[in-house]
Specification:
heterodimer, A: disordered N terminus, disordered C terminus, B: alpha+beta, four-stranded mixed β-sheet
Chain lengths: 679, 819
C-alpha cells in the first residue's frame, strides 16, 4: 500500500482498508473523468462512475485488466503511457493518483473493501404509510433543538439567492447559503440557526409536504451532486441520496417521503428510494438541463421542466410519462403544484407563467408575468401565486393570474419568492443575495434575512448594538408618548374650564347688570338723602338766624323794659330754643356730610363694576375661539397618540426581541460546536 | 488500346520525370566572415506604464551585416536610465514611481534607447470586463468555434465567437444561469474558474492554472461584483506586434515577440500575455503561447498576434545556420523581375534559368489565348531570329480574338454568368455579350466595373443589371462584391468579428448598407426584370439592431443622401481610393499566369494571409492604376518578364519554393482550354447548346451549360464567386476518362488526322514530329523518336500504330500540363 492510500484511509477514519474502487478510486474518477465518462455522457461508450460499467469497458473494449496495469488502458492513458492521453487537453494528473490507479489494478481491481457482497447500505425509514392532507397533527414543524448559531461559512457577501423555501405549516424559512442552509423564523425574522451542507452550494431547498423534512440539493459544479434530507425538528441529517457528477439543479421529495427525484445538467431524471437511496427510475427524455421539478401534493405525479422549454409530467411511482406540456418558448425556471394537485404552474425565461390542468394536460392560462423572464413562481397554501423575475420585481397573483400586488423593486434580478405558511408574508431573494421580507397585505418591505449571517461573536456585538439602539428608540418612543399624554390632559382640563365659563357667561352678565342698577339706585338714594339732610341743616340755620334776631329783639326789649319779667323769661326761652336748634342744625349738617362721603365709594363701585363687566364681555368674546383651538389640539394629539402608543409598544417589543436574540446568541456562544470540515 | 500504346504512354510519362536540377547557384561555403552588428532596436519603441498593474515585455533585436537578426534581450546590457522609476524583472518592466526615463541597451558596439513614461504608479486600475476579462477567453481558447464560441455553445455554456458580443457574454456569465458560472460569495470557487483551471471535470481540459494571471484577473473581477463596463470604457484601436521582421539563423534560434495595444483614450498596454499567437508555417517558425518564436526548417512564416478584433503579423525568415549564399547574376526585363529577385535574394533562393523557346511558345499560347500553337505558328516562331521575338509574340497574342475570349471566360466565372430561375437564358446571353464587348474593346476595367456595380434598368436593356439578378440575397451580394472586386472573404463577419482579419460586424453591415436599396420589378416580358434604386432600406446590426450607415469596406462613410448608394459604392470600389481594387485585379491576373497568386488564394486577402511579395503586388497595383486600368498593358509587363519566362526545372535552392516565383510552376490546363486543345490537335469539332458546331469551349456563355468532359476536368459551375470553383486537381476519373473515354481515342479516329497524313504520303517519322509539335509544341527527342519508330516499324498496321502514338501523347502528363 502506498503512503497516499494509507493516508486516504486514515483520513476516512478507518483502519487502512484494502485499496478498492468505492473508497479510493471512485472519488478520483468522479473528479477527473466524470465529466465525459459519466452515465449521462458515456463518451467513447465508457462509464467510470459505476463499478460494473467500468469493468465492462468502453466501445474499444475493456479498460481494466485486473492485476495487469500495463494492459489496462485506464492506467496507461491516465499515466500518459498510451494514446489518447487522459484527461484530454489537461496536464497529467498527480503522480500519486496515477499510482493509486496502478496499485488498485495491480491488486486485482476490487470493488470494495470487505467481502464480495456489498455491506447493506444504511436503511432510512422516513416513508409515510399514507399522505395526510391538511395541517399535520402535532406542533408546527419548527426546530426543537438549538441549531448552530455560527454560520459554517462566512463569505465576502451572499451569492445570488438560488434556494429559498418556507415551511407549509410553520413560520420556518430556509435559505441556501455557502455549504449550509440558514433557517429563519419568517414571522419574527429571527435567525434560528444554520444546517451544514458540506457537499457544496445548495441550489434547491424544499420542505416536505407535511413540513417535517427539509430537502437540500446542490453540490459542486461539474464534480458532485447530492441530495441531503434533514429532520426539521432535530436539524439532523436523515439521509443522503444521489451520485450526480454535476451539481443538482432540481430535486424534490415525494409527499409520502418515499421518493426523491433529481435532475440537473445531465438531462436525466433519476428517481431514488429514500429507504436505501436505490435508483428506481432513470428517464432520458429531457433534451436539456433539468431546471425545475415538484411532486404533486397527492404524490401521484411529478412535473419536471428543462432549460429548453420542455415541461413533462410523470407518474411518480412508475417514472412513466403522463403529459408533455408544450407551450413555453424558453427555459423553465420553477414548477409548483396547487394544493389540490389539479393544477400545476410553470415559470419560464419566456416571461410567462403558465397554468396547466391535469385532466387532459392542457394549458389553462398563460400570463406575461415578468418582462425579460420569470425566474420563479410558487403557489402559496391559500392558492395565491407569488412570482419573481428579471424585471427585478416580485408579484403576487390570485389563483387565476390576476395581479394583486407588486412589491418594491429589488436591487437586481429577483430570483426566488415564496409565500409564508399563513400567506401573510412574501420572502424573496435577488441576485445581490438580499432576502427581503414583504408584507403581503400592504406590499411593504418589513425586513431582511441574511443569506450570509455574521459569526455569532460578531452577531452578539451587532445584536448588542441593535439592543442599545432599540433601547434608545424605546425610551424615545415612551417619552414621546408621555409628552403627548400630558399635553392632552392639560388641554382637556383647560377646555373644560373654558367651556364652563362660556356656559356661565349669560347669568353672570345678567347679575352684573342687576348689581349695577342697584348700585346706581343706591347712589341716587344717597344723593337724595344728602340733599334732604342738607336742606334740614339749612332750614335750621335759617330758623337759627330768625331766633338770634328774636333774641336780640328781646334783649333790646328787656333793656327797654328791664323789669318786664316776660323779657328774661322770653330770653331764656329763646336761648334754650337756640341751643336746641343749633344742636339740630349741627346734627343735620353732620348727617349730610356723612352721606356725601358715601357718594364717592358708591360711584367707584359702579365704575369698577362697569369695568369688570366690560372685561368680562371681552373675555367672553374670545372664549369660543379658545375652545375651538383646544378641541383641535386634542384631536391632533388623539390622532397621533395611537401611533405613538403602537410605536412605543413596537419599540418595547423589538427591545424584548433584541434582548431575546442576544440572550440566545450568547447562550449559544457558550455551547458553540466545531463546524464540519470540507468533504 | 493496345499494349503498344500503353507502353508508349508509360515511356512518355517516364521521360517527363524532372530533369536533374541545374547546377546549384549556391557558392560553396566559404569560411564564415565575422558578422557585424549593424543595428540594435528596442521594442516596443516607446513605453507607457500607467497604473501599478501595468507592465511591459521588452525585446531587443540586433541586426547583422548579412541580414540575420537576433534576439539579444538576455545578452545585451538592458537597463533603465533612472532605475528609481521602474524595476526590470527579466525582460519585463514593472512601474515603481511616476516620471520619464529611457530604456537602454548595448550590444556589439551598438546601443539603443526607448523613451518610457510611468504614470499613476501608485494607483490601482479599475478592473474592466471588456479590457481585462474578455481577452482571456480568446487567449485561452474558450470562445473558439469548436468550444464555447460555437453557435449553440458547448456543454450548455455559450460565449460569443472570438468575443464579438461582450455585453452578451457578460450577461451569460453573470445572469443567464444565476449562481452557476460565478460564485459571488466565494469567487475562487466559481465554476468558470474551477472548469478553466481543470479543478473539476471539463471537456475542454485545463485552459489556465489555478492562481495564474488569468485566474487572478477573473477573481478580481468577481470580487468587484462582476461589473459590466461603463459605456465610456476605452476600446482598442490598434495593435502592434514587435519586432516587425526577423531573419533567424538556423534551427532552434528564438525570437521573443511583444504585443502592444492602443486604446481610444490614448493609453497603451502590453497585451503580450493576452494576445493569441499564430504562425502561418509551424514547420519553419513555431510560436509558443507566450510569444516565443522558435526557428524550425528553412522557410518563411508569418507570425501573427490576435487581440481584440485585430490580427497583426510579422514576417519571419528562417535560414540554415550560418548559411553562405550569393545571388547569381540574373537578367531583369522590368520591375517585375527586380522585385521578384529582391525577395529571392532575401530568401537566399537562386532562380531557375530561362525556359526554352518551345516551352515559352506553348506556355504563352496556353496562358494568353487558350489554344496551342499550330505547326505553322511553331515553325514561324522557331524560325524567327529576332532577339525580341518573345516580346513580339506577346504583343501579337494580345491582339488575338482568343485573348479576349479567354478573359471573358475568366470574368464570366467571377460574375457568375449563368442561367437560372431568376436569370433567363436570353438575359444570360445578353449579359455575356455585354461583358465580351467590354473585354474585346479593351474598356478599362474600372470603367466597366463601375458600370456593372452601379447598373440600373431592365436586364435586357442594360444587361449589366443581371449582376444583381444573379444573386438577389443582399448578404450574398455584399459578400460577392467584396470577394470578387476586393479579394476579401468577409462572410465570417456576418455573424461575428472575423477571427483572422480586421473585419468586424460593423464593417460588414456598413458595407451591406450599399446594397439594401436595390429595387426589382417585373416587365411585360416575364424573363426580364428591372433593377432600380428604391431609395429606402438600411442594414441593421444583428446585435442591438442598430441602423448601419453605408461605409466603404476599410474606407470612409460617404454621404449618400439622395444618391444611388450602389453608384456611390461602384465609383469608390473601382478607383484608386479603394486600396484593394488595383492590387486585387493585378493578383487575379498574376495568378492566371503563375498558377499561384501573390496572395493565394486570390480571393482570400486578409491580414493573416499576407502576400508572398508585398512590394511586387503594390507595384503591380500602382502600375495598373497608372495604366488607367488597361489590363493588356499589365499582362504585357508580366509576360515579357524574365520571371514568367523561367524554366520549370528547379535547382537545389528553389526546389522547395512554391510562392516566390523562382521557377515556373507546372499547372494543369483548365477544363475549357484543355477540351479546346484536344479538339484543336485532333481536328475535331464540338457542339455546345446554343453555339454553332465547332465553337470552342471557352466561348460557352452560360455557366449552367457543361458536358461530361468539362465537369470532370473541373469547369466552374459559377454557382459561387469562389476562386476555388475552377478545380485543377488531377483526379482518377480524369485519367480514366482520357485513357478510356471518347475524348481521346474516338476523337483521334473521327479527326482522322493520321489517315489524312498517311494519304498525303507522309512518312511515319514526319507524322510523329507533327503530332509532337501539335500537342507539345516541340519535336520529339532522338531517344523518344527511336523508341517510337521501333514500335511503329514492327506494327503491320501503320495507321493504328501511329494513332496509338497520338493517343499516348494525348495521355502524357506533358500534354495535360502547362509547364
Amino acid at each position: 500500500m502506498t503512503p497516499c492510500v494509507f493516508l486516504v484511509s486514515l483520513a476516512m477514519g478507518q483502519s487502512p482498508a484494502k485499496l478498492n474502487y468505492e473508497q479510493h478510486v471512485l472519488p478520483f474518477l468522479m473528479e477527473k473523468c466524470g465529466n465525459c465518462h459519466s452515465a449521462d455522457k458515456k463518451r467513447g461508450g465508457l462509464v467510470v462512475t459505476n463499478y460494473q460499467k467500468i469493468m465492462e469497458g468502453g466501445s474499444s473494449g475493456a479498460v481494466i485488466k485486473p492485476g495487469d496495469p500495463e494492459k489496462s488502458s485506464l492506467y496507461m492513458t491516465t499515466a500518459h503511457k498510451a494514446e489518447p492521453v487522459m484527461p484530454p487537453m489537461s496536464p497529467k494528473v498527480a503522480e500519486d493518483k496515477i499510482e493509486l490507479i496502478r496499485a488498485w489494478i495491480a491488486s486485482g481491481a476490487p470493488e470494495n473493501s470487505g467481502s464480495k457482497v456489498l455491506a447493506a447500505g444504511p436503511k432510512t425509514e422516513i416513508g409515510l404509510a399514507s399522505i395526510v392532507r391538511g395541517r399535520p397533527s402535532g406542533p408546527p414543524p419548527m426546530p426543537a433543538k438549538p441549531l448552530a448559531q455560527d454560520p459554517f461559512v462566512r463569505s465576502r457577501r451572499a451569492d445570488a439567492v438560488l434556494a429559498l423555501a418556507s415551511n407549509p405549516w410553520s413560520p420556518l424559512v430556509a435559505i441556501g447559503g455557502q455549504r449550509q442552509v440558514l433557517l429563519y423564523n419568517g414571522d419574527t425574522q429571527d435567525f434560528i440557526g444554520a444546517i451544514p451542507y458540506p457537499e457544496g452550494v445548495p441550489t434547491v431547498v424544499k420542505f416536505s409536504r407535511n413540513g417535517s423534512l427539509l430537502l437540500v440539493a446542490g453540490g459542486r459544479g461539474s464534480a458532485l451532486g447530492k441530495v441531503a434530507i434533514y429532520n426539521v425538528a432535530t436539524g439532523e441529517r436523515v439521509t443522503t441520496i444521489g451520485a450526480e457528477s454535476d451539481t443538482i439543479l432540481a430535486a424534490d421529495i415525494s409527499p409520502d417521503q418515499s421518493l426523491v427525484a433529481i435532475g440537473g445538467p445531465g438531462k436525466i431524471l433519476r428517481i431514488h428510494s429514500t429507504k436505501d437511496g436505490k435508483l428506481l427510475h432513470e428517464v432520458k427524455k429531457h433534451t436539456d438541463w433539468i431546471t425545475a421539478m415538484e411532486f404533486s401534493p397527492d404524490g401521484v405525479l411529478l412535473a419536471t421542466g428543462d432549460r429548453s422549454s420542455g415541461v413533462v409530467v410523470w407518474e411518480a411511482f412508475t417514472g412513466r410519462e403522463y403529459f408533455n406540456l408544450r407551450g413555453h418558448t424558453a427555459a423553465i425556471t420553477e414548477i409548483s403544484w396547487r394544493q389540490d394537485s389539479n393544477f400545476v404552474i410553470s415559470s419560464s425565461e419566456d416571461g410567462t407563467v403558465r397554468q396547466w390542468e391535469m385532466e387532459n394536460g392542457h394549458q389553462v392560462r398563460s400570463w406575461a408575468a415578468h418582462a425579460g423572464g420569470a425566474l420563479g413562481a410558487r403557489y402559496g397554501m391559500d392558492g395565491r401565486i407569488v412570482s419573481a423575475g428579471r424585471d427585478k420585481t416580485v408579484k403576487l397573483w390570485d389563483g387565476t393570474g390576476t395581479a394583486q400586488k407588486s412589491f418594491p423593486v429589488m436591487a437586481d434580478l429577483a430570483l426566488r419568492a415564496t409565500l409564508t405558511h399563513d400567506g401573510a408574508r412574501v420572502i424573496a431573494g435577488d441576485w445581490t443575495g438580499t432576502v427581503a421580507v414583504f408584507s403581503s397585505a400592504d406590499a411593504k418591505k418589513t425586513g431582511e434575512l441574511s443569506a450570509n449571517p455574521l459569526p455569532v461573536a460578531e452577531r452578539i456585538g451587532q445584536l448588542s448594538k441593535v439592543l442599545a439602539e432599540r433601547q434608545a428608540a424605546a425610551d424615545a418612543a415612551a417619552k414621546v408618548e408621555k409628552a403627548s399624554r400630558d399635553a392632552l390632559a392639560a388641554a382637556t382640563t383647560e377646555l373644560a374650564a373654558a367651556q364652563k365659563a362660556l356656559q356661565e357667561m349669560p347669568a353672570q352678565s345678567r347679575m352684573a347688570q342687576e348689581q349695577l342698577a342697584k348700585l346706581q339706585a343706591d347712589l341716587k338714594a344717597i344723593q337724595a338723602q344728602q340733599v334732604g339732610q342738607q336742606a334740614q341743616a339749612d332750614a335750621r340755620q335759617m330758623v337759627l338766624g330768625e331766633l338770634r334776631l328774636s333774641v336780640t329783639r328781646i334783649q333790646e326789649a328787656s333793656k327797654k323794659t328791664p323789669a318786664n319779667p316776660a323779657g328774661p323769661v322770653a330770653a331764656q326761652l329763646a336761648a334754650t330754643y337756640i341751643t336746641h336748634v343749633e344742636k339740630e342744625a349741627r346734627e343735620h349738617a353732620q348727617a349730610a356730610a356723612a352721606t356725601a362721603a358715601k357718594v364717592a365709594p358708591a360711584q367707584k363701585m359702579i365704575t369698577d363694576l362697569q369695568a369688570q363687566v366690560a372685561s368680562r364681555t371681552q373675555a367672553a368674546a374670545a372664549l369660543p375661539k379658545r375652545v375651538e383651538a383646544l378641541q383641535a389640539a386634542i384631536k391632533v394629539i388623539n390622532m397621533r397618540l395611537p401611533a405613538e402608543t403602537a410605536a412605543n409598544q413596537e419599540a418595547q417589543n423589538l427591545l424584548k426581541h433584541a434582548n431575546d436574540s442576544l440572550a440566545r446568541a450568547k447562550s449559544f456562544q457558550v455551547s458553540a460546536t466545531v463546524p464540519p470540515s470540507k468533504p | 488500346m493496345t499494349h503498344l500504346s500503353l507502353a508508349i504512354a508509360t515511356f512518355l510519362v517516364a521521360s517527363q520525370a524532372p530533369a536533374k536540377p541545374v547546377a546549384a547557384a549556391v557558392i560553396p561555403a566559404a569560411p564564415a566572415p565575422a558578422r557585424q552588428v549593424t543595428g540594435l532596436s528596442i521594442f516596443p519603441p516607446d513605453i507607457q506604464l500607467a497604473t501599478k498593474r501595468s507592465k511591459q515585455v521588452v525585446v531587443v533585436q540586433a541586426s547583422y551585416s548579412d541580414g540575420i537578426t537576433e534576439d539579444v534581450t538576455s545578452k545585451c546590457n538592458l537597463r533603465l536610465e533612472n532605475a528609481a522609476l521602474a524595476t526590470l524583472q527579466g525582460q519585463t518592466i514593472l512601474p515603481v514611481a511616476d516620471g520619464t526615463t529611457r530604456v537602454m541597451a548595448d550590444f556589439g558596439g551598438k546601443s539603443a534607447a526607448a523613451p518610457m513614461v510611468v504614470s499613476q504608479a501608485a494607483e490601482e486600475r479599475q478592473i474592466s470586463f471588456k479590457l481585462d476579462v474578455m481577452p482571456i477567453f480568446m487567449r485561452t481558447g474558450c470562445n473558439t468555434g469548436g468550444c464555447h464560441g460555437a453557435a449553440r455553445g458547448k456543454d450548455g455554456f455559450r460565449l460569443s465567437l472570438f468575443g464579438f458580443d461582450p455585453d452578451g457574454d457578460h450577461h451569460r456569465l453573470t445572469r443567464e444561469l444565476n449562481g452557476r458560472r460565478l460564485n459571488m460569495a466565494v469567487p475562487s470557487s466559481s465554476l468558470l474558474l474551477e472548469k478553466g483551471a481543470g479543478k473539476v471535470a471539463h471537456t475542454g481540459g485545463q485552459r489556465f492554472a489555478e492562481n495564474d494571471e488569468y485566474w487572478q484577473t477573473i477573481v478580481r473581477w468577481v470580487e468587484a461584483d462582476a461589473p459590466a463596463d461603463p459605456a465610456t470604457v476605452a476600446t482598442c484601436v490598434a495593435v502592434d506586434l514587435y519586432p516587425k521582421t526577423g531573419v533567424l539563423n538556423g534551427k532552434g534560434a528564438t525570437q521573443r515577440m511583444t504585443v502592444k495595444a492602443k486604446y481610444s483614450d490614448g493609453t497603451t498596454r502590453d497585451v503580450t500575455h493576452l494576445a493569441l499567437f499564430l504562425s502561418s508555417n509551424d514547420a519553419s517558425a513555431k510560436i509558443a503561447p507566450d510569444g516565443l518564436v522558435t526557428a524550425g526548417d528553412r522557410g518563411e512564416a508569418f507570425v501573427m498576434a490576435r487581440f481584440f478584433t485585430f490580427t497583426v503579423g510579422s514576417p519571419v525568415i528562417v535560414l540554415p545556420k550560418d548559411y553562405q549564399f550569393s545571388f547569381p547574376a540574373t537578367p531583369e526585363a522590368n520591375y517585375v523581375d527586380t522585385l521578384v529577385n529582391n525577395k529571392l535574394r532575401n530568401l537566399r533562393i537562386a532562380p531557375s534559368g530561362a525556359c526554352s523557346d518551345e516551352a515559352f511558345l506553348r506556355r504563352v499560347y496556353l496562358d494568353m489565348i487558350g489554344i496551342l500553337p499550330n505547326p505553322e505558328e511553331y515553325a514561324r516562331f522557331m524560325g524567327n531570329g529576332s532577339p525580341n521575338k518573345r516580346e513580339e509574340l506577346v504583343d501579337e497574342l494580345l491582339g488575338r480574338k482568343e485573348f479576349a475570349e479567354l478573359w471573358v471566360l475568366k470574368w464570366a466565372e467571377l460574375l457568375q454568368i449563368r442561367s437560372s430561375n431568376q436569370v433567363s437564358y436570353k438575359a444570360t446571353l445578353l449579359y455575356y455579350n455585354w461583358l465580351q464587348d467590354k473585354i474585346a474593346r479593351n474598356v478599362p476595367v474600372n470603367e466597366w466595373v463601375q458600370e456593372l456595380l452601379g447598373a440600373s434598368g431592365g436586364t435586357f436593356k442594360n444587361p449589366a443589371t443581371n449582376y444583381y439578378q444573379n444573386e438577389t440575397d443582399i448578404l450574398k451580394v455584399t459578400e460577392n462584391v467584396a470577394q470578387v472586386f476586393m479579394g476579401m472573404r468577409i462572410q465570417c463577419a456576418q455573424c461575428h468579428n472575423h477571427p483572422f482579419d480586421r473585419w468586424t460586424m460593423d464593417d460588414y453591415y456598413g458595407f451591406m448598407s450599399f446594397f439594401t436599396q436595390i429595387g426589382r420589378k417585373g416587365t411585360d416580358d416575364p424573363r426580364e426584370t428591372v433593377v432600380f434604386n428604391s431609395g429606402s432600406g438600411d442594414a441593421r446590426h444583428p446585435v442591438g439592431n442598430r441602423v448601419m450607415a453605408p461605409k466603404f469596406l476599410g474606407g470612409v462613410a460617404p454621404e449618400t443622401k439622395g444618391k444611388d448608394r450602389r453608384a456611390v459604392m461602384s465609383e469608390w470600389i473601382a478607383s484608386p481610393e479603394n486600396p484593394y481594387f488595383a492590387t486585387n485585379v493585378s493578383n487575379i491576373v498574376w495568378a492566371h499566369f503563375f498558377g499561384t497568386g501573390i496572395i493565394n488564394e486570390v480571393d482570400d486577402v486578409r491580414v493573416s494571409n499576407p502576400p508572398s511579395n508585398a512590394e511586387l503586388l503594390a507595384e503591380l497595383g500602382k502600375r495598373f492604376t497608372g495604366y488607367k486600368y488597361d489590363f493588356k498593358k499589365l499582362i504585357r509587363d508580366i509576360c515579357v518578364s524574365k520571371t514568367y519566362q523561367r524554366a520549370s526545372h528547379t535547382n537545389a535552392s528553389n526546389e522547395q519554393d512554391t510562392r516566390n516565383f523562382s521557377h515556373a510552376a507546372i499547372r494543369r490546363i483548365k477544363a475549357e482550354t484543355f477540351l479546346d486543345c484536344i479538339s484543336q490537335v485532333t481536328e475535331t469539332r464540338n457542339k455546345f447548346p446554343g453555339l454553332p458546331l465547332g465553337a470552342r469551349a471557352v466561348q460557352i456563355a452560360d455557366g449552367a451549360v457543361s458536358n461530361y468532359f468539362l465537369t470532370t476536368f473541373g469547369r466552374a459551375t459559377r454557382e459561387t464567386v469562389c476562386a476555388c470553383e475552377v478545380r485543377l486537381e488531377p483526379t482518377l476519373s480524369q485519367s480514366l476518362h482520357l485513357l478510356n473515354g471518347d475524348t481521346t481515342g474516338q476523337r483521334i479516329r473521327s479527326g482522322n488526322l493520321i489517315s489524312k497524313r498517311l494519304t498525303e504520303k507522309k512518312e511515319a517519322p514526319e507524322i510523329i514530329d507533327e503530332v509532337f509539335i501539335r500537342c507539345l509544341a516541340r519535336r520529339p527527342t532522338d531517344a523518344e523518336k527511336q523508341k517510337l519508330m521501333a514500335m511503329v516499324a514492327t506494327d503491320t498496321d501503320k495507321k493504328k500504330a501511329l494513332e496509338d502514338v497520338f493517343w499516348a501523347v494525348l495521355n502524357s502528363r506533358e500534354f495535360m500540363f502547362n509547364h
